[in-house]
Amino acid sequence: MSDGHGGGHSGLTHIDGSGDARMVDVGHKADTRRVALAGTTVRLSPETFALLRENALPKGDALATAKVAGILAAKQTHALIPMCHPLPLSYVDVRFAPVEAEAAIHIEAEARTTGPTGVEMEALMAAQVAALTLYDMCKAVQKDILITDCRLLHKSGGRSGTYDAPGR
Questions:
Q1: pLDDT tens digit string along 88-146?
Q2: Which domains can be identified in the chain, with CATH numbers?
Q3: Is-contact 18 12, C-beta < 8 A?
Q4: DSSP states along 58-93
Q5: Calpha distance 72→68 (Å, rounded)
Q6: Residues near 44 by Cβ (< 8 Å), separated by ≥ 6?
Q7: Which residues are within 8 A (CB) of 162 and not within 5 positions of it... i.e. 6 or more apart?
Q8: What are the b/e assignments for 124-145, b being 16+ CB within 10 Å?
Q9: Catalytic: 136?
Q10: Is 156 helix (H, G, I), strand (E, B) or coil?
Q11: Considering only Cβ atoms within 10 Å of each terminal Cβ, which end of the chain, N or C, has fewer?
């Protein structure tokens, strides 16, 4: 049996002593400042990239729409990922770095909270939903858009400390 604080079946935090899935009890953990950054890339054709840069896509302003979608997604992470806790997010942002030479949009999402558990999933969700929204906004002119390289870039706070992705 597990004590409810993680390390249940085989040391897995989301599995109890009987092998059943469960949400980790974080009630005993101290609130700390938590920050997470996640990134992903949307790869477009040069023609689609130009339309996006010129705000000339048939569906409108793709970057503004993707930013709002990413922020909303971070706020709903707990409703979509079964074992995530609902968190009082103090800050969420989605930033875009268009790279013309690659016909790519690099997305970075940031989430912050002060609480007993981290915001990595919220940052990852924001980045991915922003990328999916760019796909949706661009699909009328291009179907073979690639969404690549989604990963955690940075996290700080909590017992495990700070993490920075290699090569960042």
A1: 999 999 999 999 999 999 999 999 999 999 999 999 999 999 999 999 999 999 999 99
A2: 1-30 (no CATH), 31-157 (3.30.70.640)
A3: no
A4: TT--HHHHHHHHHHHHHHTHHHHSTTPPP--EEEEE
A5: 6
A6: 52, 103, 104, 105, 138, 142, 145
A7: 154, 155, 156
A8: bbbbbbbbbbbbebbeebbeeb
A9: yes
A10: strand
A11: N
Burial class (CB in 10 A: 0-12, 13-18, 19+), 156: middle
Q: Characterise 55 by phi-psi region: left (phi > 0), alpha (psi -120 to 50), beta (else).
A: left
What's the CA gap between 97 and 106, in Å, rounded? 5
pLDDT tens digits, residue range 2-44? Answer: 344 444 444 556 666 677 777 677 767 788 999 999 999 999 9
Helices marked H in the chain — which ranges? 46-53, 62-75, 77-80, 120-138
Task: Extract the tokens encoding 64.
Answer: 């503004």
